[in-house]
Structure formats: structure tokens, C-alpha cells
Design goal:
The complex is a heterodimer of chains A (312) and B (258). By secondary structure, chain A is α/β, with parallel strands linked by helices. In chain A, the strands form three sheets. Chain A has a six-stranded mixed β-sheet, sandwiched between helices. In chain A, strands 2-1-4-5 form a four-stranded antiparallel β-sheet. The radius of gyration of chain A is 23 Å and the shape is globular. With 258 residues, chain B is mostly helical. Chain B has one domain. Chain B is built from eleven helices and two strands, in the order H-H-H-E-E-H-H-H-H-H-H-H-H. A two-stranded antiparallel ribbon of chain B has the order 1-2. In chain B, helix 4 packs across helix 10 and helix 10 crosses helix 11. Chain B is elongated and about 60 Å long. The chains are: A alpha/beta (312), B mainly alpha (258). The interface between A and B is medium-sized, with 32 and 29 residues.
């Protein structure tokens, strides 16, 4: 049984916009799954349908085997969701928002209060519990929504850009927290624009574009399909023109101290450094231009754009 | 824990949240109707009322008192649900309930409970104000309670329908201003329909609020233009229709699911 099983899911909005064009998707139990795609690709529509905020046009969705149509109460009771937009009453105190959500799921008040304390403490919000939610910072509001989504201990948790607008330090602690939740057995589906986050956390990945799933594979095999990687090299001495490198494209000189080199999968970094060394070019430091998933993502989605442009 | 017990917890959560919402802002929700009705008593009851003399065999101020209480119940139960439901929609926190395993009927009854409690609380507050102007007497307390409860129930449902269809804050006030207020004023609060020409008496009978005001007045004073049984049947009839309509709207997700 899958944690999530979507088949032939279509959604056409009243204005004629075809947001989902018959997608199929499965997520294994216990997975940490990345659901990626550019803005307007259909991610939020898909999540909206799973969480019953959007009516689908056709197709089926099952959460741990429970159909969202025929067994909606069962499906909903094991699903938790952290949406992209803030959707709580900003005039309610933090603690009440979380406890009330427990109540909506039928968690008795006493238990809900204890659970609220537990999650608010874990997410560093306990000291703000009596504050109206509107006084929280953006990052705190995101964490509030995570605490709220966990109050009924869901088996499948959908996180729609949970770290948007969160500073890097806090993001790292949230990653740790999400990892912990996943290791305790909760299946997680994550959408994010920080591809480093997806690469770091997720085991499997689906990429959606223009309402269609264009990749659905393991993170490892997706990254393996990367044909080349781009590196930024910081040089010790000035150079005026790009060095000639055998087996590599002509590097780009960003400034007199910095080179951008594309390293194909067939070539190694040792090879690159050796060739530079033989030309007396000393590399002091280097880094990836973008992370690997980002590189792939750009390649895949821009390929599609080119295809659409040609067709159009 | 059985599923029913979970629904009960969900119901209590919604009802409690709805009650807390208006109770926290009591200066905006409880006080204004008390002030308004106080002014009605001063102007229509004391100043003008003394010149009007008796209506249906009682002092004018005693005659209008039940209608004014009823008017407060109607407007407040309606306003509570429409503003709360639309607010939840506008700020998207209605999604908290929509994603949770709560049957629509529980959401509906939860909101209606908030409306009823607000309507009844305001009704009691306004009755307390009336004590400064009239002697307190109730002919049949049970009837007063039942009619107040059913009326608050009915207008809470109506408020929810308005909330479902409302797309802007303007939509929240259009129905109360252009439909509810005229129907209430023409619903026999300030006069007995027997004063009207025959034709207008018949026209007045189309107005459902007339039945509520008159049966409520019967509860207080033992006098009514309408038979009590007919009045209760009319109110129950509208409750059934509006309840069914609310359920259809929620099941379809009108205005709340895309």
C-alpha cells in the first residue's frame, strides 16, 4: 500500500485553465518525497486536491489506501498539511490555533493541550504561546503552521514550501526537525524552491511542469543523469584570457581572478586541475555554481520551454 | 474513541471558538444593540409613545418591547454567522476546518451555535435595558425561550448562506440593509397589523418576521395578531428549507472550494 496514490488526475478550473492533465503519482510509505516544479506548474492544485480544498475534475486519490471521495473522513484524519499561504486567524493566540486544530481532528482538549505544548516547545514557539499570531515573524508563522499540522499525528505530512522566507540558520534547524519527524515514521511530501533542501532531504522526487509529471524517480538516479556540472574556480593570480582545456568547453572568465568551468560527466576534476597546473594556473578555492539538482531542474524545465516554444 | 465522540469534540471546538470570537469583542457585539434599543425606548416608548396611547390594550412601550428584543436577536444572530464565516473565508482559515475530518453538518451546527448564543445573549442584554422603561412580565416563559431560540437558529442559517455567497465585505452588509431591516421594521414591531387596511394586512402575512415578532409578543404579553401554532410552523418550515440549502452549499463547496 502506498502512502499516496494518484491516478489520472485532471483539474480544469472554471476559467478553462487546465492545471492538471491526468497525472499519475505514487509515494511510498515512510518516504521523504520532493514534489518540484516551476511556479504555476500545478503543484498547489495537486496538493489542494489531496487536502480536499480543491475539487478535482476527474481521477482518483488515495491516502494510505483510503479514497478521498469514498472514505474522506479516514483519508483526512491521517493527513497533515502545511500550506504555502498563511491560513490561520491572525487575531487568535498561537496556542489556541494549534489546540483548536486538534479539536477539529477530534483530539480531546486535554490531550490537544499537551500535544500543543510539546510541538510549540520543539519548534521554539512556546514562549510566544499567548501572543496573537499576527505579531509573529514570517519564520515563526511557518513554524506555527508546522506545529498545527502535527497536532493529530498525521501519517502523511505535506509541506508546501515550509522554509520560504526563513533565514538559513533556522532553515537548517527545520530540516533537522523534519528529518526527525520522517525518521519517526511520518511520510513527508515536500515542495520547495530551495533545491538544495530537496537534494539534501529527499529520497525520491517528482517534477511537474505545465500540469504533467515530467520526471518521477529516485533522487540518486536523477542526479546521476546530470550530464555536466558547473564549477566556479577562484585563482591565485590574475589571468587575462581563458585557458585552453582539452575535453572541456572554453571556460568563462568572470573576472581576472575567477573562472567558470563546465565539467562533463566523462571528465574528472583531477583532470581539470592537472591541466590548469600545467599552465601554471593555481586554484585557491572552488565551489559548485549551483547545486546539482538545481542544475538539472533548470536543464529539464528549460528543455521543455524550448520544446513548447518550437511547438507554439 | 469512537468517530461520534470525535465529531462531538470538533463541534465543541467550533462552537467554543465562535462564542469566544464575539465575546472577546463585546464592545462591538453586545453593547451597540443595548444602546440602540435604549434609544428606541426613550424616543418611541417614552417621548412619542405617551402620545400614541394604547396598542392592543397595552401601553405602547410595553407593546414594542418584545419586538425590539426580537429585532436584536434577528440582526445579531445573522451578523454573527455572516461576519465570522466570511472572515474565515477571507483570511483562509476556513481551510483549517475543510482539511479536517469534520462532516459538513458539524461545521454548520457549530457556526449556528455561535449565532444562537450571540442572538440569545444580546436578547437577554436588551431585555435588561427594557427593565428601565417597562415592568418586567412574562406571560409564558417557555414560549419566549422557544421562539427566541428558533428565530436565532433561522437567522444564523440565513447568515451562513450570505457568508457562503459573499465575495467582498460589501456583500456582508447588503442583505441586512436592504432585506432584513425593512422586513423587520415592517414585521409588526411598532404596530399591530390590525391598524393596516385589509389588503396590507394580507401583504404583511407574507413577511416571516411578522410571525416571529407576534409569537414572541404573545410569550411576553399574551397578545398576538397571529396564531401561535401557525407562527411556530412557519418558523420551522423556513428552518428546514434553509438548513437543507446550507447543507447543499457546503457539500458542493460553493464559495469555499475551487
Amino acid at each position: 500500500m502506498y502512502a499516496l496514490e494518484i491516478s489520472r488526475l485532471h483539474k480544469t478550473y472554471a476559467n478553462g485553465l487546465q492545471a492538471l492533465k491526468g497525472i499519475d503519482l505514487t509515494v511510498e510509505q515512510g518516504d521523504f518525497f520532493a514534489f518540484l516544479g516551476p511556479n504555476g506548474a500545478g503543484k498547489s492544485t495537486c496538493i489542494g486536491i489531496i487536502t480536499s480544498l480543491v475539487n478535482k475534475t476527474s481521477g482518483t486519490v488515495k491516502v494510505f489506501g483510503h479514497s478521498i471521495d469514498k472514505e474522506s473522513i479516514m483519508a483526512k484524519s491521517i493527513l497533515g498539511s502545511v500550506p504555502q499561504e498563511f491560513n490561520f486567524n491572525t487575531f487568535e493566540p498561537v496556542q489556541e490555533i494549534v489546540t483548536n486544530q486538534g479539536g477539529f481532528y477530534g483530539v480531546p482538549a486535554k490531550v490537544a493541550r499537551l500535544q500543543t505544548e510539546h510541538y510549540l516547545k520543539q519548534l521554539g514557539l512556546w514562549q510566544y504561546r499567548k501572543l496573537q499570531a499576527r505579531y509573529l515573524s514570517g519564520g515563526m508563522k511557518r513554524r506555527l503552521m508546522i506545529a498545527r499540522a502535527l497536532i493529530h499525528k498525521p501519517r502523511l505530512l505535506i509541506l508546501d514550501e515550509p522554509t520560504a522566507g526563513v533565514d538559513i540558520e533556522l532553515r537548517r534547524s527545520m530540516w533537522e526537525f523534519m528529518n526527525q519527524i520522517n525518521q519517526q515514521g511520518t511520510t513527508i511530501i515536500l515542495t520547495t524552491h530551495y533545491l538544495e533542501e530537496a537534494e539534501r532531504m529527499c529520497h525520491n522526487v517528482a517534477i511537474i511542469d505545465e500540469g504533467e509529471i515530467i520526471k518521477n524517480t529516485s533522487m540518486k538516479s536523477l542526479l546521476r543523469s546530470l550530464k555536466s556540472e558547473t564549477f566556479i574556480l577562484y585563482l591565485r593570480d590574475d589571468i587575462s584570457q581563458p585557458p585552453a582545456l582539452e575535453g572541456f568547453a572554453v571556460p568563462v572568465v568572470i573576472d581576472s581572478h575567477t573562472l567558470e568551468v563546465e565539467v562533463p560527466q566523462t571528465r574528472s576534476l583531477n583532470d581539470l586541475i592537472q591541466q590548469l597546473d600545467s599552465q601554471q594556473i593555481v586554484v585557491s578555492r572552488m565551489r559548485n555554481k549551483v547545486n546539482r539538482l538545481e542544475e538539472l531542474f533548470i536543464t529539464i524545465t528549460s528543455k521543455l520551454e524550448i520544446m513548447h516554444d518550437t511547438v507554439g | 474513541m469512537t468517530q461520534w465522540a470525535k465529531y462531538w469534540v470538533a463541534y465543541l471546538t467550533i462552537a467554543r471558538r465562535e462564542i469566544l470570537r464575539f465575546a472577546r469583542i463585546w464592545v462591538q457585539t453586545i453593547i451597540p444593540p443595548m444602546v440602540m434599543v435604549g434609544l428606541y425606548f426613550v424616543i418611541f416608548g417614552k417621548l412619542i409613545g405617551q402620545r400614541i396611547g394604547e396598542m392592543d390594550g397595552m401601553n405602547y412601550v410595553d407593546f414594542i418591547m418584545p419586538g425590539l428584543v426580537m429585532m436584536s436577536i434577528i440582526t445579531n444572530s445573522y451578523a454573527n454567522v455572516v461576519s465570522s464565516f466570511y472572515g474565515a473565508k477571507y483570511s483562509h482559515y476556513i481551510e483549517e476546518m475543510l482539511i479536517a475530518p469534520i462532516p459538513n453538518i458539524v461545521i454548520l451546527i457549530g457556526y449556528v451555535t455561535g449565532g444562537i448564543v450571540r442572538g440569545m445573549s444580546v436578547g437577554i442584554a436588551v431585555t435588561l435595558v427594557s427593565l428601565f422603561f417597562t415592568d418586567f412580565s412574562i406571560h409564558a416563559p417557555l414560549i419566549v425561550f422557544v421562539i427566541a431560540f428558533l428565530t436565532a437558529f433561522l437567522f444564523s442559517l440565513a447568515g451562513l448562506i450570505n457568508g457562503v455567497f459573499a465575495r467582498t465585505f460589501d456583500d456582508v452588509t447588503i442583505i441586512p440593509t436592504f432585506v432584513l431591516t425593512p422586513l423587520t421594521y415592517l414585521g409588526g414591531i411598532f404596530y399591530s397589523i390590525r391598524l393596516l387596511p385589509e389588503t396590507w394586512q394580507q401583504v404583511s402575512l407574507i413577511n416571516p418576521i411578522l410571525y416571529m415578532v407576534n409569537s414572541f409578543r404573545f410569550g411576553f404579553r399574551g397578545v398576538s395578531d397571529i396564531g401561535l401554532g401557525t407562527a411556530i410552523m412557519v418558523i420551522l418550515f423556513f428552518i428546514v428549507i434553509l438548513f437543507a440549502f446550507c447543507m447543499i452549499l457546503l457539500e458542493r463547496g460553493t464559495g469555499i472550494r475551487h
